[in-house]
Amino acid sequence: MEAIQDKIKRMIDANFNRTREGLRVIEDIARFVLGNKDTTNEMKLLRSDLAKIEKNFDFTLSRDTENDVGTSLSSDIEERRGSVFDIFKANIKRIEESLRVLEETFKTIDIEMSKKLKSMRYKIYIIERKFEMELKEIDGQKQN
């Protein structure tokens, strides 16, 4: 039977992956769609900050993709995006949610890392608002 710590390590590994992937999507939208050097750099720096945390805790060996019950699950909303704005929203939320999971699980491992992850999550909230307004103008979405 798999020990609970191994299961938590798998959960952490999956959420590091989600966060990194989401950051990369947002970075590429900022770079290629918006041509926004500042936001591109901000996202690149956040990915670098995340990598610095992750390298201290290599959970890759805990990965068990073949037996992960969630890999075959999806919803209709995941399978289709109507616009660049939809891609942005899906990925910014993915980043926020996965940072929250990391923040919570690191409370059992390293409280200082948990605090750093919390700080990253709040940075993402600020970036989300700024980025969303800029992207809505380009993507033809109505301002809320």
Structure description:
The structure is a single chain. The protein has five helices and no strands. Helix 1 runs antiparallel to helix 4. Helix content is 74%, strand content 0%. The chain has 144 residues and is mostly helical. It has one domain.
Outline:
The chain is an all-alpha fold.
Record keyword descriptors for this entry.
single chain, 144 residues, mainly alpha, 5 helices, 74% helix, 0% strand, elongated
Fold topology:
Blueprint: H1 4-34, H2 37-55, H3 76-79, H4 84-106, H5 111-139
Helix pairs in contact: 1-2, 1-4, 2-5, 4-5
Main beta sheet, described? none
Give me the number of helical elements.
5
Number of domains: 1
Structure summary, number of beta strands: 0
Q: Give the amount of beta strand, in percent.
A: under 5%
Question: Which regions have little confidence, pLDDT < 50, spanning 5+ residues?
Answer: none
Oligomer: single chain
Helix/strand order: HHHHH
**What is the CA-based Rg, rounded?**
16 Å
Task: Label the overall shape.
Answer: elongated
- What's the mean pLDDT score? 85
* Fraction of helical residues: over 70%
End-to-end CA span: 50 Å
> Class by helix and strand content?
mainly alpha
